[in-house]
User: Fold these one by one.
Assistant:
Number 1:
Amino acid sequence: MLVNSPHADADLPVAEIRDGAVELGGRPILRGIDVSVRRGEVLAVLGANGSGKSTLVRTMMGLVPTVRGQVRLFDVPRQDFHDWHRIGFVPQRVTAASGVPASVREVVASGRLSRRRPFLPPRRADRDAVEDAIAAVGLTGKARDGVATLSGGQQQRVLIARALASVPDLLVLDEPTAGVDVSSQQALADTLRTLVLRGVTIVLVAHELGPLGGLVDRTLVMRDGRVAYDGPPIDVFTDADPFHVHHGEPGRTADAHTPAVASPLDLTHGREEQP
Ligand SMILES: Nc1ncnc2c1ncn2[C@@H]1O[C@H](COP(=O)(O)OP(=O)(O)O)[C@@H](O)[C@H]1O
Ligand SMILES: [Mg+2]
């Protein structure tokens, strides 16, 4: 079963960045980052393309080094953390609309976050975890099919199943809805809802939330490598594309540099409305 056992550290953050700064390729990418992910919450990381969402969550998971500040995972300093099986990571897909594609190292790193010991045959627990993970994303009937024959949304669920197979306490998904049809997004929302009930903490990177919006407990908005908002779920405009109309306050103009706060999250959050 994919049930996570209760831990003594129930109130401690599962991931934390304190006064964090990140440079990539000699360029400052993130600055002044103070983020704490609480156990059991669903945190949405929103923001325009290039605002630093992927870098933020990679830093949170200890996959990107900081030039300043502290990263803690399950209340352990990143350099002392070894329980990688507690973290499941579904990287941004190469085919996702924009952003930096997942590198080989990144994909390998995501595979490393596993309970399976190398060079040893799978144990019963390993096989059960795999079957449970496939069932959790609703692909039991497709278990024997080649991934290439699946739709984009189904392939996305395969990646999620790969992350779930290690029965993570923290599941990080980078743009899981990008390029995925709405019915697959709905299936993903149902899967994630089940995980939330099992006590899994979820960090969800999105350009827009779609059907996943109803799951979110807290929203963080990135802007130019900084946290521009961290609080209750909100609706934001993050896209300068005039053809990409989001719902929100009538008459408010989308602006890539000014995430606009609109109504609090409700059950219809994230759904496209006719302008
Ligand atoms: N490996 C890298 N080397 C240099 N710059 C990078 C690298 N990865 C990302 N960046 C830059 O960092 C900024 C933030 O990127 P990213 O975190 O991918 O943003 P988002 O996920 O919000 O689209 C962008 O300007 C991007 O070009
Ligand atoms: Mg990204």
Number 2:
Amino acid sequence: MNFDFIQHDVIEQKAKSRYRQLVCNSATSQSNEIVINGKSYLNFSSNDYLGLNNHIEINKALQEGADKFGVCSSSSSLVTGYHYAHQALEADICQWLNKPKCLLFSSGFAANLALFQALGKNEESYFYLDKLSHASMIDGAYHSKAKVKRFNHNNIEHLTTLLTKTTKSPNKLIASEGVFSMDGCQAKVLELEQVAKSQQAWLYLDDAHSVGVIGDEGQGSNYFADIDITMATMGKAIGTSGAFLTCSEDLHEYMVNFSRHYIYSTAISPAIAWATRKSIELVKKEQWRREKISELSTLFGKLLAPEIELVSTESSIHAIIIGDEKKALMLSDKLKKQGIWLTAIRPPTVAVNSSRLRVTICANHNVKDIKYLAECINKAIA
Ligand SMILES: Cc1ncc(COP(=O)(O)O)c(C=O)c1O
């Protein structure tokens, strides 16, 4: 049989309680409700942290963008796909994060592959990645020609040792997530900035889970520190789709000329770029959304039974580590019966024996939702 690993691997996945399946959400409302197979659930697994998805003003801007520029860019940026909507969005992002240049990508995954592959041109480049970095950073780094080192999670000492021991090459890039996607904890951004400066390295942060949520205008890690290169997806707190990278003029010029992911890919929808401008305007001015996440998160921590430990975080993400895959799945199923949608996160997304319930608390949840969630989790785990 051709490619017989296909059947074999799926059978093995099922046996390990790691089997994954698509479920279709048929909800049509703007709330955090999802509807699966006709049953409604409170959604605590979404990345719509600020509750901006389906916002009436963003939807209106999407329609306006479609009317002005069309839904499709109809070409890669360097051919004819780069519209005024893209240029204006890039300018907004540069101003928001106080950075010289911005580039748009169809997804955060593509942006990460693009950056690592562009900078990892040859073996003179050295990448230092936090061990908990996202799959797309790891793939980007290892598929490049650079030498890749992994430092222990948030361990600045280990990073410094690796940096001082491995090379004198000037092409060093330190890479981390700003807020870690599966734990919710923040990187030590200021310390990373200091190490980068003292070791003449560049600092790259994947701010997918920080932008929108952290900072008084949702600037993410750039609120605290001067980050050489930042990537953020627009498919989470910003509530649209695609991703952006901010960087220096020189790197921008280099990416436009040499990044295969940028050059050989259709530019993002100009209608979505236009809608994203409106979304960023709301992200900046509606501080109440960040305050609500913070208030509800504090309440959640207080209501959980004392034996349930949460990783301390300023973000929307709250991880309850369960350990075993089967137990995590069983708990997720128990919660579903109570009308709560909380996906069990299992290896290889997280390390073996660290399967977890990853709770996301969003600005469109309310006190009643959080009380109900905590009550159901306490009952399920006790
Ligand atoms: C930390 C991180 N980086 C990158 C991505 C990929 O972004 P996108 O969904 O836009 O491809 C994700 C998840 O989606 C993520 O959690």
